[in-house]
Design brief:
Layout lengths: L1 E2 L2 H9 L5 E3 L10 H7 L3 E3 L2 H10 L5
Parallel strand pairs: 1-2, 2-3
Helix pairs in contact: 1-2
Protein name: Hydrolase
Organism: Thalassospira profundimaris
Length: about 60
Amino acid sequence: MIEDSPSGVVAANRAGMRSVGFVGGRHRQNADPALLQDAGACHVVASGDALLSCLRNRGLAG
């Protein structure tokens, strides 16, 4: 699950899913990566390229 809010990360974890926190969205310009990490995101990325790399490293994207 890719999430941009701590509550979304918590919900993903409660549903048994791992989540990647994303702080690169224009609608969340002041997003704090630590909040997503503290909520339980397995990784936090700040750009689309970093997200794609994260997913590729886990065999989740081609």
